[in-house]
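The material for today's practical consists of a large collection of protein records. A record pairs a protein's sequence with a compact description of its fold. Instead of coordinates, the fold is spelled out as a row of discrete tokens. We will come back to this pairing of sequence and fold again and again. Here is such a record, shown just as it appears in the course material.
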Amino acid sequence: MLRIVETLPQGFVDAQPEQLEDLLGGPTLIHLPGRRQPTLFVSLMLHGNEPTGLYAVQHLLRDYAERELPRALSIFIGNVSAASHKMRRLDGQPDYNRIWAVQGDLPEHSMVDQVVAQMSERGVFASIDIHNNTGINPHYACLNKLETPFMQLASLFSRTVVYFTKPAGVQSMAFAELCPAVTLECGQPGQEYGVEHAAEFLEACLNLNEIPEHPVAPHDISVFHTMAIVKVPEDVTFAFGLRDVQLQFIDDIDHFNFSEMPAGTCFGLQHEETARLECQDEHGNDVSERYFNYADGKITLAMKVMPSMLTRDEKVIRQDCFCYLMERMELPAHLQHSESQA
């Protein structure tokens, strides 16, 4: 399934997401030369309805159309079939950001294994995976290892950083074994600032001689730890606003994202007593009772927590999740910048 090329496909820098499948023929890994090695790796369109990564890379490549890239650049363009339909993934497809470095017998598992093997052989300076959100969220960076190079890379994009170890199978977790790796969350699709921000970050990475090894100053970064993932069970009906469903969520729930919500905050109404949200921690344990209460027909938070990636997109909720729950975390001592290091 994977196409590997050493030159930029004709028409790529002007292509729209829905044109990629016809242009490329399928998922494609593009290797481009630059003044420095090892290469900067960028993955985009792992979800077909998240185009900011494509537009940011196109912006960058147009800027360097007549000059050499500061560093070699490898670009992986993922789910072009879903992109042609402007969908996260097609029915019957796996999620392209849940298939990395996990066992599976699908062709897509072999494809991403081949990408990792290619990049491991070449050597990787850093890995950047670019995404959009469907709900209202700030721009933030995600990482899977609490190590200084990862923190430095993340803080170059945003002072808001999310650390998580689940779900498994994400691109950044696979590449974290090769190099500093981050995921960029660039707001909702269609926002020009998201494209500009991602493009500026990519150019900054291309021009880095090295990733700083000294700790990030505490005032330059806020780190949140993803404690749980919340899903709506497949057999439970839900909606936003008034409908004949088992769980009815409040209309503007995505405004809760990245706000520390107190215990008692109402998420919606429970119209059937047995219908409840599923909530699992990083180890797969059921922690629903720790985070949610159900009384008097209301769904409320049982403790103070910060939600992220709450969305009103019912298709995305079914294909992925309802939200994540986070807590602010203190950095380990070895990652804390001290006055003596200033």
Notes: The first strand starts at residue 3 and ends at 5. Residues 107-122 form the longest helix (16 residues).
